[in-house]
Structure formats: C-alpha cells, structure tokens
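Write out this protein's structure.
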Amino acid sequence: MAAATLALTDESTGSLTLGGDLPVRRLGFGAMRITGDGVWGEPADRDGAIAVLRRAVELGINLIDTADSYGPDVSESLIAEALHPYPEGLVIATKAGLVRGGPGQWSADGRPEHLREACEGSLRRLRRDQIDLYQLHRPDPEVPYEESLGTLVELQQEGKVRHIGVSNVKVAQLEQALELAEIVSVQNRFNLTDRGSEDVLEACAKRSIAFIPWLPLATGSLARPGTALDEIASGHGAAPSQIALSWLLRRSDVMLPIPGTSSVEHLDENVAAAGIELSDEDMEALDRALTGE
C-alpha cells in the first residue's frame, strides 16, 4: 500500500480556516481509538498511543479532535502528555455532551451544569486556558437545544472557548444553532457507504462551515473483491480505506476528515491517502457502486 513519505502540506490536502482565524489542513486526527477497548479506560499500549500522537504532528497534521467521553478523560490526558507544550499552529478540538456508563455505552447529557463541568475538566486535562474548538457532542432530547448551545456561548464569552461546533445534527438543528452562535464546524457520520448527512454537508458547503465526517474510512460491502472500489484501489496501489479517504477529500472543499487509529503504520497509510488523485471516472464509478447502477 502507498506509504507516507512526506509531511502533509496545505497544497496536498487543501486547507480551511475555522472561524476566520484558525487555519487547518483538511486531514486531521481523531483521538478516539487511542483509548482502551470500547473507548473505555487506558490503552493497552500507552507508549504506542503517545507515539501515534507525536507521529501525527510530525506528518503535518494540525488538527486533533477528541472528547471528554473518550476514555472517559483518557484521550485528552494522553494528548497533553504527548504534545504539551503544543507546537505553534496545532488546533485541539474537543467535545462535551455525552457521558459513559461503561465500555461501548454512551448517553446524552446536555444540561448546562454538566457542560460547564465538562469544559473545566477538558481545560485541565488538555492543560489549556482556552479550548480552540468546543463541540456539542449530541443534542440531548431531555434538554432544550438552546439551553445546551447557550451554555457553550457563555463559555465562549468567558474566554474558555474560542470557537463552537456541533455534532450529530440534522439541518433544522444546524439552522437553530446558527441562530444562537457562530458555528464553525459540524461533525456527523459520513463516508463512502453512508451518505445520510448529504443535506447537512450541502448546508455546510453553502455557509463555508467545516464538515468533519466521523467513521470516514468505512467501506462495507463495497470493498469486496471485484467491486469498483477494489478495482480502483488496485489501480492506485492503495487500500480500499485509502480510496474512501481520498474520495472524501475530493467530495467537498469543506470536508475535513479525522481518521483515527492506535497504530503508527495505519496513521502513515491514512496520511498517504492525501496523495492519491482520483479521476472523474473513479468518482463516478464509486457513486454508481453505491447506488447499484
């Protein structure tokens, strides 16, 4: 498979400027997988997790995305251990609004008091005075959305948060959020096989809001031998997951994938995907493969 030989540049990935003052390359790192199984507890290989984070920065990644619920608390602490004092230009994004009952268990908690407590905890673990990008992890059906978002606005006004993002939203919720705050990013599930947030992506593109797809490398049945994805990957000397990532980067100028991994080798492979240039024919074939045409 294609290996990363050069660090990312603005030219190789394209770039976005969050909120008008935070430039980032359009390939970040998602720090969920550096925790234990079920995104719970410490990683089995702590030194390996530290190495992955440092390698990400070496490769030119300048956006790392995490959340207080990853571990919980573990991912943020590892980021600070590996990278603090942070290099100039590195953007750390984190999220709040989910609580954990155990491995693989996630529950929404958008209460203002919880979000305030979560923000203080993230600041402490990340060793920051201000969070670059603070995202509401998920709307809480038990709490009015304006109360949850309003708390992030208050934290921003207090200087604890620089920019605000939202996650796992529908278009109507994004529009509601935009009435309450300047939203600089949206993080929804989106990949080659799951395009259920296509309308949210279009809304972000219209407003120049960064769209951060989670689960970006999923390929599902499209990666079976003999499929269009398999043939395109073979033609580029790449893995199907690399093609899936390259497809995202070409799909929209506001797309900002954050593939995560606990392996330096896999990280190198993901970064190498930025050097794959899909043709118009490749893109059309991948679209036909999804629709079955």
